[in-house]
Design brief:
The protein has 4 helices and 7 strands.
Length: 142
């Protein structure tokens, strides 16, 4: 079940599940040391997919300077390979169209998923950069 909430609307259990999933994947599984929880968590839209009250996919959407961005795109390990990643990106783009229809969209995608985002109309801009201690590329929605 897809839900969109602002920070103030999240229950403590939902917030716990968000931080638990992000930490499990981005910090532990990907073996990266960085500050996952940041100021953007309080100002973004949190897009969540829950099955049986358990968070299985998530992303956050927020303004960053003169453009809209999204990140912390994550799928629970036991739900990968099911097409849920594509469904999550479709939900992100649907949410952007509804809440931010006229905003320019830029993301920093992990280098190895560049081709995945290209399927949704994103184009790589520039060279590989280090972002949150891993190789990323800037991409713009065409």
């Amino acid at each position: 079940m897809w839900q969109i909430k602002q920070f103030s609307e999240l229950s403590t259990d939902e917030l716990f599940q968000i931080y638990q999933l992000r930490s499990a994947v981005f910090v532990v599984e990907q073996d990266r040391l960085y500050q996952d929880v940041d100021v953007h968590d309080k100002e973004c839209l949190h897009l969540m997919n829950l099955e049986n009250n358990q968070l299985v996919s998530y992303a956050r959407i927020f303004m960053e300077g003169d453009h809209l961005t999204f990140g912390r795109v994550v799928i629970a390990k036991d739900h990968r390979g099911t097409g849920m990643g594509s469904e999550l990106v479709k939900q992100i783009l649907k949410t952007i169209k509804k809440y931010y229809p006229d905003e320019k969209v830029e993301i920093h995608a992990e280098d190895y998923v560049q081709h995945f985002y290209e399927k949704f109309g994103f184009k790589r801009i520039g060279d590989v950069i280090s972002f949150n201690n891993s190789p990323h590329v800037k991409m713009v929605l065409q």
